[in-house]
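ZP: hey, is the nicotinamide-adenine-dinucleotide complex queued? I don't see it on the tracker
AM: it wasn't, my bad. submitting now with these inputs:
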Amino acid sequence: MKQEQIDALRHLLIPDQGLLIDGQWATAASCQTLPVVSPIDGQQLCTIAAAGSEDIDRAVQAARRTFEQGVWSRMAPAERKKVLHCIADRIEAHHAELAVLGVRDNGTEIAMAWKAEPGSAAGTFRYYAECVDKINGEIAPTPEGTLGLIHKEPVGVVAAIVPWNFPLMIGAWKIAPALAAGNSVVLKPSEDASLSLLRLAQLCLDAGLPPGVINVVTGTGAEAGEALARHMDVDILTFTGSGPVGRQLLKASAESNLKRVYLELGGKSPNIVFEDAVDLAQAAKVSAMGIFRNSGQVCVAGSRLLVQRSVHDEFVERVQKLAASLRVGDPLDVTNDIGAISSARQLARNQSMLARALEQGARLRTGGQVIAPVPGGQYMSPAVLDAVQPDMDIARQEVFGPVLAVMPFDDEAEAVRLANGTEYGLASGVWTGSLSRAHRMVRAIKAGVVHVNTYGGPDITVPLGGVRQSGNGHDKSMHALDKYLDLKTAWIQL
Ligand code: NAD
């Protein structure tokens, strides 16, 4: 990743974007559009089509038709595998273009986007390409004279609704296993970050994915998203986003065709530092980036820092200094550590949650200011709050911004109580030199992932998903394939 390479791409004109339905790019039936405004400098980049229910219906029909025709669902597994590998090749060939396009759209710092967006999306397509010809059925241990076969079949039409943070990475986590299992897909990106996924869809067509197997419908959640969630011919809805929208999707399913709904929602993840942590300096560095990378706009962000009282002051001092030293600015400047907040709406939410925390008695150790390193852009300095009490809103509610809430604890039992003291259960971290304590904590914490002596970074081989109100599904790993497959029994009298 070189600055010259980024600079060559950062001012490219972006044409107004259409919907991809049945292999054709088209305007919305209503001809309505939404502006795409870059959080880097507030400039309008282009428009995206604002799909309505008529467009959603056409996209679902295209997905259904291709599924029933078998152009993809019944294509030989070895051939499907080649196409998915070819998509990965295309992503790699367009790595820089995709990374810069995504950053212009959502403001993630380029170093992070470079790795987490096209880098991980290509790897995800390769991983699931390799799964295509390893999805075996089973023979059940039935009595003499009978044969029980368990077939694994693609489900049909998969709707995927994704958020604005890491759209390529999260989009690939859903599209690649859904396609590997033989389904057709209708993808609804966030209205705040559609561009890189629209580009990915074109790369899928270029790689030989038959038209209509992937369809992309942009637009608002209230209109395009809702119409997709309520469509009577969608078999599965896989969603990543906020809890309130997750609830609406369950309702939409209940009030339409009972489509299966998988939810990957938010978190308020505890990062727990014990006095026996081996290297407090390293723990502080990783913990600071565990909340502040991508301006805290990371579902697994370690937004609650729980520190054992004996090392509390020293540790918080380190984190505070690190936070204050981070360079916030133009996300396409490789010398900056942190980029922009994705939208004015999100920045306002961060500020109001910070103000509420101060009102409720938390103390601001550093940061929290709205700053303007690039005129017209949305930026905020990383905030560290201490004197946080477990019942404050800032200790219980997700900010999804660069705000760290610090709380002390006395012993392991209190750490567990605090860690599990929210309605969420997405991620967590434990820093300790004791192997026994590490294992005890892994068992005790209610979360989909417990990082030990690190924070962040698990690869595609392991599942990501939450418990409690952080969701009910898993992306990544072989387990994600199960979401996109139906089991069918053949019971045969011999
Ligand atoms: P959001 O819930 O506002 O939007 C997500 C998607 O849902 C967007 O595409 C949006 O257009 C659509 N949507 C909104 N209202 C809808 C409706 N009524 N019907 C159908 N679709 C609708 O979330 P966001 O602000 O884009 O993303 C941030 C949230 O996502 C945070 O809570 C974060 O924790 C969560 N997240 C979770 C994970 C995970 O893996 N668990 C990963 C990334 C982000």
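AM: back. DSSP finds 16 helices and 21 strands in the chain.
ZP: great, adding it to the tracker
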